[in-house]
Amino acid sequence: MTMKERTLLLIKPDAVQRGLIGDVITRFEHKGFKIVGMKMLHMGKELSKEHYAHLVSKPFYPDLEKFMTSQPIVAVVIEGKDAVEVTRLIVGPTNASKAPGGTVRGDFSNSTSRNVIHASDSKETAVKEIGRFFRPNELFEYELNDAFLYASDE
Ligand code: UDP
Ligand code: MG
């Protein structure tokens, strides 16, 4: 069964530095997802350890933390049909060198560590991760309204 869902994206420091914020977000808008929350922030070490709790014991964690806390990131919540699963398909595999063309990582990166974007990996994770980055009043319920396309210029 298909479901309206929300999921969290983080546009990582490499993508912000390379001027790819717009290109990355566009992929999700064009797929048909609605942006319901967005902010730029600096990820602190504590937030990194919480967000990557499942990876803190890995040998690459110190580099990951240094990278993710080095420069601002952009957090985006998108909403739409099967958002969690479909988003992971659009993002592509972790190792961007092996990610197929047409995916965000395949098109914009050639690295496992500097791989442009984070996306929640399950419905349960998405709920937790959205709550980690956004307060309820920073998320928006709104309908798309045709009236803007037909506004009178008078
Ligand atoms: N990562 C890394 N080296 C690795 C595996 C992961 O630097 O060998 C980094 C990479 O930035 C990745 C993040 O850790 O996106 C989180 O890893 P995860 O396995 O959750 O991959 P993802 O869900 O981002 O595809
Ligand atoms: Mg992950």
SSE inventory with pairings:
Layout: E1 4-11, H1 13-17, H2 21-31, E2 34-41, H3 45-51, H4 61-68, E3 73-81, H5 83-91, H6 104-108, E4 117-119, H7 123-133
The chain binds uridine-5'-diphosphate and magnesium ion.
Features:
binds magnesium ion, binds uridine-5'-diphosphate, Alpha-Beta Plaits, alpha+beta, 154 residues
Concise summary:
The chain has 154 residues and is an alpha+beta fold. It is built from seven helices and four strands. A four-stranded antiparallel beta sheet has the order 2-3-1-4, sandwiched between helices.
CATH architecture classification name? 2-Layer Sandwich
Radius of gyration: 16 Å
Question: Which overall shape is indicated by the principal axes computed on the Cα atoms?
Answer: globular
Q: What is the H level of CATH, i.e. the homologous superfamily? A: Nucleoside diphosphate kinase-like domain
Count the strands?
A: 4
Q: Which segments are poorly predicted (pLDDT under 50) over 5 or more consecutive residues?
A: none
Strands side by side in the biggest sheet: 2-3-1-4
CATH fold-level name: Alpha-Beta Plaits
Largest sheet: 4 strands, antiparallel
Our estimate of the beta-strand percent is: 15-25%
Q: Which hetero compounds are present in the coordinates?
A: uridine-5'-diphosphate, magnesium ion
SSE string, helix = H, strand = E? EHHEHHEHHEH
Mean pLDDT metric:
96
**Structural domain count:** 1
Q: What is the top-level CATH class?
A: Alpha Beta
Report helical residue fraction: 25-40%
Span between N and C termini?
Answer: 46 Å
